[in-house]
Structures are given as structure tokens and as C-alpha cells.
């Protein structure tokens, strides 16, 4: 099938690569000439497993990059809108890019001269967006019988986006006509019939994947709400476990044990119950605000979401208090920071609690030596001023960051941090103090390894053996 993807950002590129993998012909549109040139040269602008390979395999044949939105729409049967919907001034998503492309899509529909098209919103958008897109297209001259607007929310997580796309828990398709439903069923048929997974060259599905995935058909409004409600619920789980972790600290319980007992209930499950310094990223904070706004606009009391947000913000403060408790005063202290991305496995620093915490430490007069396996280029831009002033440095690896530091702070749950050589880290640090905002290490092991160790919702640990006093450097 001929597919156009409007917007070569995170969701758009992943969708483009994956639809090409499903043997569709994809025209991937963007208005950023620099980005298009980089893509044409074979570069992959985001850090995502399998994506560089997909782009390499299909670039120039099943996958073509172009700035000709109108032509791409005219030539396609299904058009996915995947432009950015950044947080707006009021907290919810700013939909001006969606409106802008909807106008241009209308011209493409007209140019298509009667060829029926389904325009699908895939970016994270609030309820009623499909209705607005339909209206903008109609008002821009696209004849109503030539198109339908559908909603097909994307549930991919950064870092595992390609696998999430190809092996989703479910595919949600919000449609208001059978014609549109048929087209979207055909787009996803390689997944829903299981044909893709039988291919010898298929990207192997994760162990727990539900194969083939179900396709859930709903109205466009329900599909839009499913997306926002899913993210709000997951954010709620994170805030819930963070509140439980705080109670564990207050009562001397251990959140790891509590999680085990809690998650063993099949109704609750184990996922999304890791405490930490709070959720971040481009989706949760924005979707939560958007969902709250929608509820408020429709006179529905959903103050539960305010509390989710409050707990999340408070979590950073709790972490900062732990740092102050571990170090007494902050001005002039040298702090090693492990992790700047909003979660492990990605280079994304949008709404990253790690960036917020590092910023606060700098503002309080500490100096920071940071290391992140992927997010340092983006973080350098954010802290350009502080870097120029020599207040923040970026290290080549975790050991270099720890060298001579007064404490080591873990801010992102990168898997590779768990495999660090703790003896080497301890030797590099000026004082063996670690404040772990992501519970990467087991406290008993940290005591064994000679650390003063605090984490989230678990008892603090102290070195089992007497400390060797370090010579002043
Ligand atoms: C999320 C949704 O999972 C995805 O379906 C949607 O399409 C986009 O938003 P993503 O933002 O990539 O995906 O991150 P996710 O892995 O869901 O984590 C979100 C945040 O919650 C991260 O900051 C993460 O560190 C935090 N988190 C997650 C926790 O603090 N504890 C957990 O147990 C799980």
C-alpha cells in the first residue's frame, strides 16, 4: 500500500521504517531541509535499536524522503500525521503544526483528484483532534467524500520503539467509517495475520510479545482517549509506587519487598512500579496535562491527576534532600552524575528529571561532572552556559566522572550502570558516597563494596569494613 508519513520526527521515522519493513511503499515528508539531507545521506538522527538498519535497507526503494507534502499525499492511500505536538503555553499539546499540515494535506487530497484517502493522526493528540482535522480539510477545499480522518495512536516507548511498533500489545484504530477501517486493517494486516512474524528476516519479537497483536476498532474519540488515558494511568502507577517508596522510608520497610508482593497480584502486575526520581519524557508530563485539561473543559473532576503530578514533582525534591543529607553543604562540592536522559536506553532529555536535578545542583553552587551513554550531546546544549563557566563537565565514562568527586549520584536507569565495577568507582571517588535515584544497585552489595549508599524507599547502607583514609590530592 502507498503510505505518506508527514513529519520525520521520532514517531514518524519509526513508523516509516516499520511500514517499509511491512512491505508498504512509504513517502516520508519533512520540511526541515537539513534533516532530509541527513536522512538522504544515510544518517539516523535518533538513538533507536534497529532503526538505522531499517532506514539503510529501505532508503531509496520502499522508503523515500521528500519535502513535497502535497505530492506525497496525492500519491498515497493512507496519510499518517506524525508532526510534533510540543507542550503549549497552557500545559496541553500545541496543535498548530497539526493544523498547518492538515491545510496542506487538503491540497494533496484535491491534487489526488478523487482517489480516496484516509488521513490518520498518529501523533499524541487530545480528544477531538480528528474532528478538527476533518473540519480543517473540508474548509480548505478537500471534498468530504474523498477522505476520512482516523486516529491510530502510537504506544511506542523510546529505546524499544521499533520492537514496540512491530510487536505491539494492541493496535488501536479509531474510525468513523467502514471504508477507513478497511484501509487501516490492510495497513496492519502483516502484523494482525501473523504473516510478518513468519518471515525468516523478521526482527525477532520479544519473549513476552502477544503475537499476533489484536486490532481494536473504536470511534475516533475513544481512540484519542485511550492514548491519553493509557499514559495518564502509567504515570499514576509511577507516582503511586513513589509514594509507597516514601512510606517505606518512613516506616523502615523496603520498597523492593513491597513491590514483589504487590506485583505478584495478577490484577496489579509488576511493570511500571519502579520508584525513582520521577517520570519524564516527551509524553507522560504532556499527556497528563492534556488529559487533565480535557477533563476540566468538560466539567469532569479528575483531581487524581493533579496529585500524580504533584507527587512526581516532589520526588525530585526528595532526592535533592537526600543529596544534602549525604553531603551536608553543597557549594563547592564536586558531584559525579550518572545519567542525564529521562530514562535508560535513549538520548532524549525532554522533561528529564535528571536534567532538572543536575540544574538544581548547579544552581545551589555544586560543580557537576556528568556522564550519560547517549544523552551528552543534547545535555551539552542545555548546559552550554554552565559548561562555559566551568561549572559542569562531561566525562568520557562513569569512572572518569567519579574521579575525585565528593559523591556519585545515579539519575537515570541505564542498564550498563548496574554492571559498573564498584571497586573501581569507589577508588575513583574522593568519598565513597552514592545517592542512587533509580535503585540501580542492591544496598547489601553496596555495604559490602564499602559505600555510604542511599536510594529510594530502601534502607540506607554503610560500609561493612572501616574506611581507608585517602591521601589529599
Ligand atoms: C511512554 C509510553 O510508555 C508510551 O506508550 C507512549 O507512547 C509514550 O510515552 P516513553 O516516554 O518512551 O513512553 O517512556 P516509558 O518507558 O513509558 O517511561 C516514562 C517515564 O516513566 C520515564 O521517565 C521512566 O523513567 C519513568 N518510569 C517508568 C518510572 O519512573 N518507573 C517505572 O516503573 C516505569
From TrEMBL:
Substrate binds at residues 155-158, 227, 272-276, 280, 343. Pathway: Nucleotide-sugar biosynthesis; UDP-alpha-D-glucuronate biosynthesis; UDP-alpha-D-glucuronate from UDP-alpha-D-glucose: step 1/1. Residues 336-443 form the UDP-glucose/GDP-mannose dehydrogenase C-terminal domain. GO terms for biological process: polysaccharide biosynthetic process. It holds the Pfam family UDPG_MGDP_dh_C. The keyword DNA-binding does not apply. It catalyses: UDP-alpha-D-glucose + 2 NAD(+) + H2O = UDP-alpha-D-glucuronate + 2 NADH + 3 H(+). One of its GO terms (molecular function) is NAD binding. The active site is at 283 (nucleophile). It is an enzyme of class 1 (oxidoreductase). It comes from the Bacteria. Keywords: NAD, Oxidoreductase. NAD(+) binds at residues 30, 35, 85, 124, 158, 286, 350. Signal peptide: none annotated. Belongs to the UDP-glucose/GDP-mannose dehydrogenase family. This is UDP-glucose 6-dehydrogenase.
